[in-house]
Amino acid sequence: MADAKPTKKPQPTVEEKVQELARAEERAIHKHAFWLYGVLVGVAIKEALETSIHHFVNPARIQEELAHLGQRISYPDSEIGLYPEIIRLTAFLVLIIRFYFGSAYFFGAAYQSRKAHKRFPITNYGMDFIFGFIHFVSFVILALLIDIHTTAIHGFPYLVGFILVYDIFWYVSSVRRSTKAMIFWWMIINLITALTAGLVYVLLERRNVITAEIWALWIVIGVSVLDIGMMMAKRPFFLPIGKLVPPDISDEPSDSPDPAEPIPE
After folding, report:
1. C-alpha 232, offset from chain centre
2. What is the pLDDT of residues 67-85, one digit of tens each?
C-alpha cells in the first residue's frame, strides 16, 4: 500500500494576510498605549512612597522642616500618630494595583485575546484608552494627597470616592459597545463600595474626621484586596456572580497586554 501523501495546508488568501497585518499593527499600537498606563502607575507609586516613607522614617523632621519654611501643618505626628497615613498609603496601593490589573484584564479580553473580534465586535479603543488614562492621572493626584499633614483633610477620601464612581461615566460611554457587559459589574461593585464607605464616613465625621476616614478606607481596602485575588485567578467580579452575568461574557482566560518597560533614569 502506497504511503499517503501529506496534505498541504491551505495558503492564506491575500485578504487574510492583509487582515493579519492590520491586527499586528493594532497590537503594536496597543502595546505603546498601555505602556503609558504603566508609566503613570510608576510615577504615582514613586510619589506616594517618597512622601510616606520619608514621614515614617523620621516623623519629627516633618514639623521642623515645615516650621522652617513657614508652612502650616494641620496634623503633627505627635497628635495623630503614623497610623492614618499608613492606611492612606495602603488604600492607595491596593487601589492602583487593582485598577491596573483590571485594565490589563479588560484590554486583554476586549482587544488582544484570540476571540476578541468575535466576542466584542463593536469596540472603540480610543475612547476606552482615554477613560483609562484619566483614571490613572487621578491616581497621580491621589498620591500627592497622601500627606495628611499639609494637604486638605477631605482631599484624599473625596478623590478615592471619585475614582470608585468614575466607572459610571465609562459605562455610560460604552452603552452602544460590546464591552459594556464587562464593565457593568465592576461599575456596580465600585458604586456599592463608594456608597457604603461614604455612608460610614458621613456618620463618623462629626465625631472625628480622621477616624471616619480610617473606617471608610478599610472598606475600600477589603473590597480591593478581594478583587485583586480574584483577578489573579482570572475571575474578576463579574464572572462568579453566576446567572446574573450577561451570557456573552464567558469564563475564558484572556491574554494580557505587554507590561510597561522600565522607565529610563
Report:
1. 14
2. 655 566 766 666 677 889 9
Contacts of 142 (CB under 8 A, 6+ apart): 44, 48, 92, 95, 156, 159, 160, 163
CB under 8 A, 24+ apart: contacts of 12-15? none
Distance CA(237)–CA(220), nearest Å, equals: 15
H or E segment to which residue 141 belongs: helix 125-144
Nearest one of 134, 137, 193, 208 to 161, comparing CA atoms: 193
Query: Apex CA 138: angle with CA 234 and CA 171, to 5°?
Result: 55
Q: How many residues does the chain have?
A: 265
Cβ(215)–Cβ(200) below 8 Å: yes
| Domain range annotation of the chain | 16-244
pTM of the entire structure? 0.79
Highest mean pLDDT among 142-146, 148-152, 236-240: 142-146
Alpha-carbon distance of 179 to 10, in angstroms, equals 33
- Tell me how far apart the alpha carbons of residues 194 and 177 are, in angstroms, rounded to a whole number: 25
Whether the pLDDT of residue 141 is over 90: the answer is yes
Supply the DSSP symbol for 108: I
Confirm if 110 and 123 have CB atoms less than 8 A apart.
Answer: yes
